[in-house]
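All the exercises in this workshop are built on plain-text protein records. An example says more than a description, so a record of this kind follows:
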Amino acid sequence: MIRALASSRLCAAGLALLAAFSLSGCGYNNFQSLDEQVKASWAEVLNQYQRRSDLIPNIVATVKGEASFEQDTLTKVIEARSRATSIQATPELVNDPAAFERFQAAQGQLTSALSRLMVVSEQYPSLKANQAFQDLRVTLEGTENRITVARNKYIATIESYNVLARSFPSNLTAMVLGYKTKPSFTVQNEAQISVPPSVSFDKPATK
């Protein structure tokens, strides 16, 4: 009886060890590790986008003090921020391609609107001489750089995850355990969005 019990336990331990080696060989541990990296890099992307969003009310308030400033430009920034913040950016968003695309589009529109605002602001000497506005501008530029770094890290992490999900034999593990490929940022669209619009004035701004 004792020998049978010991043999049973030894067999169970052996099966558990075999299962562990099998899962490891099929990429299970890699999926766990990369999935956590995806969550962490996505959280950093959201953190930097939130940082930018938090700057906008101060930028808008400062620009509003410029009586002749283009209201259309300012309104587009406010509306773009509203659309971007209306999307609930949960960790699950990275598993929903359609929701991820909407999020990216909203953030891209906000990037474009802010870019135009900064270009237009160059036409106003009083804004260029406003230290508070210039400090906000420098902070915004730094935040945009942080966003770029965070997004690039996310793109690299997603690439590693998706390669694992598509490769054999780890794709079998992905199929069994439900690890699907995740959406990433579209670099070509971002390249277009990041180009500042050209702005021309027939007449100089009047006070």
